[in-house]
Amino acid sequence: DIQMTQSPSSVSASVGDRVTISCRASQGINSWLAWYQQKPGTPPKLLIYTASFLQDGVPSRFSGSGSGTDFTLTITSLQPEDFATYYCQQANSFPLTFGGGTKVEMK
Amino acid sequence: DVQLVASGGNLVQPGGSLRLSCAASGFTFSASWMSWVRQAPGKGLEWVAKIKYDGSETYYLDSVKGRFTISRDNAKNSLYLQMNSLTAEDTALYYCVKAPWKEGKLWFDPWGQGTLVTVSS
């Protein structure tokens, strides 16, 4: 199974900050990576797929990059509605696996 | 708007069975891959099973293989998850998720609200 490791597990930030979240796969997954955002009490929401493609309706302050084993989610100017937990997910092979999550908290 | 309404979650004893259902609307269900993804209380996400749009292919997490069965009824726009031999490790919120094909792969979008399965004596 492909293990997905996210870092950090939590980050404290302020509105307007640039936030970067990393995701590392235990083996190469090409660009088959997605990022999801989850707010408390609600289901996850797809933000980015195939490493860098922005899902319709997602603000352009979100971006994704990387390929192979190392990936990054960047929020260029954090907004109040962005405080949430973010998960990466690989779609290269079964079983489909998620990272452990990164909680973006208010500083 | 896409709607995915999961139901059937309940408190069940270890070793028991449960059948989850998901009523889909707002999209062409018969042309869509579908999945179940679960989330244990306070924990991360875990993919459970996936089914092709015509039901001809299914895929499972190893730990549920042989115990869980994903199925669908395209005439009823419904997705199912039959869960047998349940253990405490199966306790989770189970999400019904559409899996659209985008840029070469299937992704999870959107997600329904989920139905809670609690396995406890």
Mean pLDDT of chain A: 97
Order of helices and strands of chain B: EEEEEEEEEEEE
Number of strands of chain B: 12
Portion in strands of chain B: over 45%
> How would you classify the helix and strand content of chain A by structural class?
mainly beta
Biggest sheet overview of chain A: 7 strands, mixed
Gross geometry of chain B: globular
Protein topology:
The complex is a heterodimer of chains A (107) and B (121).
Chain A: E1 4-7, E2 10-13, E3 19-25, E4 33-38, E5 45-49, E6 53-54, E7 62-67, E8 70-75, E9 85-90, E10 97-98, E11 102-106
Parallel strand pairs in A: 2-11
Antiparallel strand pairs in A: 1-3, 3-8, 4-5, 4-9, 5-6, 7-8, 9-10, 9-11
Chain B: E1 3-7, E2 11-12, E3 18-25, E4 33-39, E5 45-51, E6 58-60, E7 68-73, E8 78-83, E9 92-99, E10 101-102, E11 105-106, E12 115-119
Parallel strand pairs in B: 2-12
Antiparallel strand pairs in B: 1-3, 3-8, 4-5, 4-9, 5-6, 7-8, 9-12, 10-11
Describe this structure in words.
The complex is a heterodimer of chains A (107) and B (121). Helix content of chain A is 0%, strand content 50%. In chain A, strands 2, 4, 5, 6, 9, 10 and 11 form a seven-stranded mixed sheet that branches. Chain A has strands at residues 4-7, 10-13, 19-25, 33-38, 45-49, 53-54, 62-67, 70-75, 85-90, 97-98, 102-106. Chain A starts with a strand and ends with a strand. Chain A is an all-beta fold. Chain A contains no helices and eleven strands. Helix content of chain B is 0%, strand content 50%. Chain B is built from no helices and twelve strands. Chain B has strands at 3-7, 11-12, 18-25, 33-39, 45-51, 58-60, 68-73, 78-83, 92-99, 101-102, 105-106, 115-119. A six-stranded mixed sheet of chain B has the order 2-12-9-4-5-6, with no helix packed on it. The mean pLDDT of chain B is 97. Chains A and B meet through strand 5 and strand 10 of A and strand 5 and strand 11 of B.
